[in-house]
Design goal:
Radius of gyration: 28 Å
Structural class: alpha+beta
Distance between the termini: 97 Å
Number of helices: 3
Strand order of the largest sheet: 2-3-1-4
Largest sheet: 4 strands, antiparallel
Shape: elongated
Strand content: 25-35%
Length: 148
């Protein structure tokens, strides 16, 4: 059997529970045709780069699959019929990635908290003690703007 990474995008107006139901349906299709789904990751609702079928956001879900090509073809056929599925992408891979995917690692990196100094700029002195030159508007020429 071959190894696949499969990502599908579902409409934003369905609930996360409905997305889980869709994922369960796809797992049963794969299992009924002799395959297994190793890892399932729900990535949440994310913004799309461009509109797809009038949607600006979508639910993203990743499936790691070990199945024959016929099972993948049947799952993709079922997804193309379903009106809640916006896009699908299936890639054949040499080996399945263990642990969290890059999307989930990115989310963990975003939650790292307070940041430190900003690289080479962190050691700059405070600029509040420098002298300021007067602006042109502030330097008035005598006789200008005065009415007697």
């Amino acid at each position: 059997m071959a190894l696949y990474e499969h990502v599908y995008l579902a409409r934003q107006d369905i609930s996360p529970q409905q997305v889980e139901t869709l994922t369960a349906q796809f797992k049963t299709i794969i299992a009924s045709l002799g395959g297994t789904v190793g890892k399932t990751e729900y990535w949440g609702v994310k913004s799309l780069a461009y509109r797809i079928k009038k949607n600006r956001k979508a639910h993203f879900t990743l499936l790691n699959i070990d199945a024959p090509p016929a099972a993948i073809a049947e799952m993709e056929r079922q997804q193309s019929i379903n009106e809640d599925i916006l896009r699908i992408l299936t890639l054949r891979v040499e080996e399945l990635e263990e642990g969290p995917s890059a999307q989930l690692r990115k989310r963990d990196d975003d939650d790292r908290g307070e940041r430190g100094p900003r690289g080479p700029r962190g050691d700059r002195p405070d600029r509040g003690d420098r002298e300021r030159r007067p602006r042109r508007d502030d330097a008035r020429v005598e006789g200008e703007g005065e009415v007697e």
